[in-house]
Structure formats: structure tokens, C-alpha cells
Amino acid sequence: MFNINKALGIVPNAAEHGYLVDHMLEFCHWFMALLFVGWSLYFLYTIVRFHKSRHPKADYHGVQSKASAHLEFSVVLVEAVLLLGFALPLWGKRVNGDQFPADAEAVRVHAIAEQFAWNFVYPGADGVFGRRHESLITGSNPTGRDPNDPAGKDDLISKNELHLQNKKPTVVEITSKDVIHGFAVAHFRMSQDAIPGSKIPVWFRPIVVGEFELICSQLCGAGHFAMRSLVKVHEKAEFEAWVKETTDLQNPAPVAPAAPSAAAGATTAVSPAA
Ligand SMILES: [Cu+2]
């Protein structure tokens, strides 16, 4: 069937819940197209039907038939069904805390917006985000990480690159350092404002491996147009490799002290090539 969403240039869906949004959009577009054609035809009809040559004198009683009232009522009914039957339940499902994936089974990221960039923080190997505070934010500490919190020692920071694992539920907690920004990924059919002082969680499950674009969806200043970020959805092994590589780069494991000579001899014994 002819797909209005596609004809209007919607980007392909890349998130599990995206099809639900697309179905609703498709239905809305068909409904609006029907209304547009219907009312346009009615408009043309009235131009002819009530032309001055046929009605030299105005009729002060107006329409007697109830047809237009019934039509208006049906339109309101369809709109109510759209809103109460589709839009609100879908929204409820997306924001209901009970339906969020458990921490252990999700990729968790904190997204911190600023003029004009995105900082992403991952909890690192311990799975715990370290403390952060806005008073600690400096040029070299863009996320305000508290150096005294051991949980934050292994946190990973990625600027303008959001790395995700395909098929794995993802929870992003969104906030902002300065003004209101918007976290919007059209391919994931999602958009959520980033509000200073608020931490707003969203969740989704990417289902397509590839590169997508995250844009700021709130006019946030002179550099707004450039406030975009790469979203890279990896296969599991590739994602784990990225985590390891970033960990080695940002939080290298402390170098082990030189082994005593006896141990060195043992190593030589099992590995003659060395
Ligand atoms: Cu912005």
C-alpha cells in the first residue's frame, strides 16, 4: 500500500517501538489527507452551490440539515480515538517506570547537554555511575565528575558520540548543564527535552546496526545548528571492543610491579620462545 510517511520523507525506523509510532503517524496522515480532500471538495461545492447568480438574496436561516453536525461529531470522535486509544497508551508505555528494563540487562548512559555539544557518561566496569556535581564542572572536567568518589573512577566519557549495542535495551538519563536542549533521534522515533536541574530517563531498544544522527531539538543558541552527535549502534562484540578501547584510553589499569626473578624464570620455562 502507498505509504504516506515514506512519501513525506520519514527516515527508516531503527528502534523496536518505532513501528508503533509509525503506525500512528501513518493513520494520522491518512486521516488528515481524507479531511483535506473532503473539506476541499465541500469548499468547491459551496462556491458553485451558493454562487451569487443562484442566490441573489441572502438566506438568514442558514443550514437546516443536521448532516454537517454529524460530520463534525465523527471527526471529533476519530480524533478522540486517536488520542485516547493510541497516543496516550503509547506515551504511557514509554514513560511508565515499571516498564523500564532492569539495570543489569540494559546499556545505561547519562546524556549531558551543553551549548553546543553532547557529553555521554557510561558507568564503566563496576556498573555504578560516580557522583557528579555542577560546581565541579571545569574545562578539563566537563561532566563535573567528583574525583573523590571511587565509583566514578572507571566511568567513561564520550563527547558527541553515543555508542550503543544492537538489540540491547538502552536507558538514557537526560539532563543539561546550561539551557534547555532536546535529545532527538529521528531513526529511533524519539525526542526528549534536556532540562537543567532535571534528570529525565528514556528507554528504547535499537534494532539496526549502523550510524545515525542525534540532533538538538530545541533552539538553544547561536551554535544550535551544529549541536549534533553521532549515534553508533554496534553488534555485541564490536560494542564490547569499543568499551574496552575507551576504558584503556581513559582509565588504564595500573601497571603491575615488575615480577621477581623466580617468576620470570617460570615464565621463560612455559614460553621458550621468549
Ligand atoms: Cu541545544
Concise account of the structure shown:
This protein has 274 residues and is of the alpha+beta class. Helices cover 33% and strands 22% of the residues.
Keywords:
single chain, alpha+beta, five-stranded mixed beta sheet, 10 strands, 33% helix, binds copper (II) ion
Strand content: 15-25%
The backbone outline, from C-alpha atoms, is elongated
Whole-number radius of gyration? 28 Å
- What count of helical segments does DSSP give? 5
What class would the helix/strand composition place it in? Answer: alpha+beta
H and E order: HHHEEEEEEEEEEHH
Number of strand segments: 10
**Ligand catalogue:** copper (II) ion
Largest sheet: 5 strands, mixed
How much helix is in the residues? 25-40%
Q: Which strand order spans the largest sheet, edge to edge or round the barrel? A: 3-2-1-5-8
Low-confidence stretches: 262-274
Q: Output mean pLDDT.
A: 87
Task: State the end-to-end CA separation.
Answer: 67 Å
Write up what this structure looks like:
This protein is an alpha+beta fold. It has helices spanning 4-7, 18-49, 67-95, 236-250, 261-270; strands spanning 107-114, 117-122, 156-159, 161-165, 170-176, 181-185, 190-194, 200-204, 210-216, 228-234. Strands 3-2-1-5-8 form a 5-stranded mixed sheet. It has a 5-stranded mixed sheet with strand order 4-10-9-6-7. A hairpin with a 4-residue loop joins strand 6 (181-185) and strand 7. It is elongated and about 105 Å long. It starts with a helix and ends with a helix. Mean pLDDT is 87; it is low at 262-274. The site of copper (II) ion has 8 residues, from loops.
